[in-house]
Amino acid sequence: MAPARPPSPARGGSRRRQLLDIACAQFLANGYEGTSMDAIVAAAGGSKATLYRHFGHKQALFAACVGHLCDEFLARLQDIDIGQAPFADGLRAILMELVEVVGSPRHVEFYRLVVAGSRVPGVGEAWHTHGPRVWHRLIADLLERLRAAGRLPPACPVPLDMLAEMLFDMLLSHLIIETVILGRRIDRQRAQARVDAAVAATGRVLGVPD
Predict the structure, then answer these.
(1) Residue 10 has what pLDDT?
(2) CB of 194 within 8 A of CB of 92?
(3) DSSP, res 33
(4) Average pLDDT, whole number, for the chain?
(5) Rounded to an integer, what distance in angstroms lies between the CA atom of residue 67 and that of residue 71?
(6) What is the CA angle 196-133-197, rounded to 5?
(7) Which of 30, 70, 187, 189 could bond to 131 as cystine, CB 3.0-4.6 Å?
(8) Does the pLDDT of residue 111 top 70, yes or no?
(9) How far apart are CA 38 and CA 47, in angstroms?
């Protein structure tokens, strides 16, 4: 009898994503402490050996889930066409997508999960790498492209990467206070006004003509 063939990389990747999706659902529903590897295997089917082969241990699986969920939240960013957008339109599109992401009930659950599990090794770095750092880079890339195209003044009193971080962190902080701390739903009209004010203020810092 011919020996069994090892699973193909594509099949292995598909199984890994399936395990991640199921583990994410378990962690979101029950928290880090309330979720066991046995419960994830029971929900996913298969063997515990497969789960450990893909992720090693529960802490690594949790960190992988945090990164996976961040990637899920940022999926729509790929559809935002800001390549040729004017300064205000491009920046506004990015920031309004942030409003949509952070305002979703799933993100509220996710953020609480991350805070509660932040002492788990690798979790904070996974969140920062797959979340804020992606937004920071996206905003900075937009500003740098506009400046390279001559659509922004060549000099800026603040480095563009620092300005991008400050702008994102300021809006994220407000949205987290509203949704996670106060338990409020995002008022889209007020959020739009706040984003417009942030875009206008950024334009003044950069010296963008009105």
Answers:
(1) 52
(2) no
(3) T
(4) 91
(5) 6
(6) 10
(7) 70
(8) yes
(9) 9
- CB atoms near residue 113 (< 10 Å): 23
Tell me what percent of the residues of the chain surpass a pLDDT of 70. 94
Task: Give the type of residue at 108.
Answer: V
End-to-end CA distance of the chain: 76
Residue 104 token pair: 């979703």
The pair phi, psi for residue 50, each rounded to 5°, is -65, -45
Helix axis angle for 58-73 and 37-44, nearest 10°, is 60
**How far, in Å, CA of 44 to CA of 22, rounded?**
6
Residue ranges and CATH numbers for the domains of the chain are 9-56 (1.10.10.60), 71-204 (1.10.357.10)
How far, in Å, CA of 56 to CA of 69, rounded?
19
Ordered DSSP codes for 129-195: HHTHHHHHHHHHHHHHHHHHTTSS-S--SS-HHHHHHHHHHHHHHHHHIIIIIS-PPP-HHHHHHHH
Distance CA 127, CA 62 (A): 11
Average pLDDT score over residue span 172-186: 96
The reply to whether the predicted model has a pTM over 0.85 is: yes
- Residue identified by tokens 């241990």 is 57
CA distance 5 to 103: 46
Structure tokens at 210: 């009105």
Q: How far is it, in rounded angstroms, from Cα 112 to Cα 26? A: 14
